[in-house]
């Protein structure tokens, strides 16, 4: 990878990158309000559960969307099938709503940085087919178009969603910055080999594993004092 690509990767990973993910707690706030998280042990258990859900559900869709784009091959039909499958498995309105906002923001900002026609075509294809611009689906495809490897795409995605969890923990007052970054480092190191060794698992093998976490996400909108707009 050339130095310019490294710079772009650093930009995409920056919490200041204006996609809105830093303001999204993935149901963490409601999990805290319901006392699912009350000490260090329960916090680590929650973050481990959160990570497992990312690996079993998000990663197969990212991997499949990454593989859709290849020179000389039309990806439109595959993108439509993949988006329908993702929507069918994502039965959580707050998550879906936030994912569409972040997905549109992600494509718009990436277009400004890269100015590639293929990035604009993704949004046009989804608009033409009246499909949502889900972040998880468009992420893998856009990372391929921008010239990153699948390993880099998976590592970046995991870092971004985990980083946003740490940001939420700090803003909610559940953890101080030092403890949050200790947890961030722990999980990045603990799961690095798993991510590097992630095999060719496509979206048809995606599974949900964290039902309590999803219940917490569904109750988010009923928190009158919430900081985060899921």
Can you describe this structure?
- The protein is mainly alpha-helical.
- The chain has one domain: Urease accessory protein UreF (Orthogonal Bundle).
- Helix content is 67%, strand content 0%.
- It has eleven helices and no strands.
- α8 runs antiparallel to α9.
- The longest helix is centred in the first third of the chain and has 29 residues.
- It is globular.
- The model has no long low-confidence stretch (mean pLDDT 86).
Question: Topology, please?
Answer:
Layout: H1 3-13, H2 28-33, H3 40-68, H4 76-89, H5 93-114, H6 117-128, H7 135-145, H8 150-172, H9 177-190, H10 192-196, H11 211-218
Helix pairs in contact: 3-4, 3-7, 3-8, 5-6, 5-7, 7-8, 8-9
Q: In short, what is this structure?
A:
Helices cover 67% and strands 0% of the residues.
What's the tally of helices? 11
Shape: globular
CATH fold-level label: Urease accessory protein UreF
CATH C-level name:
Mainly Alpha
Largest sheet: none
Proportion of residues in helical segments: 55-70%
Distance between the termini: 35 Å
Counting DSSP E segments of at least 2 residues, the number of strands comes to 0
- N-to-C order of helices and strands: HHHHHHHHHHH
Could you list the spans in which at least 5 consecutive residues all have pLDDT below 50? Answer: none
Number of domains: 1
| Rg measurement, Å | 17 Å
Quote the beta fraction: under 5%
SS content category: mainly alpha
CATH architecture label: Orthogonal Bundle
- Give the rounded overall mean pLDDT: 86
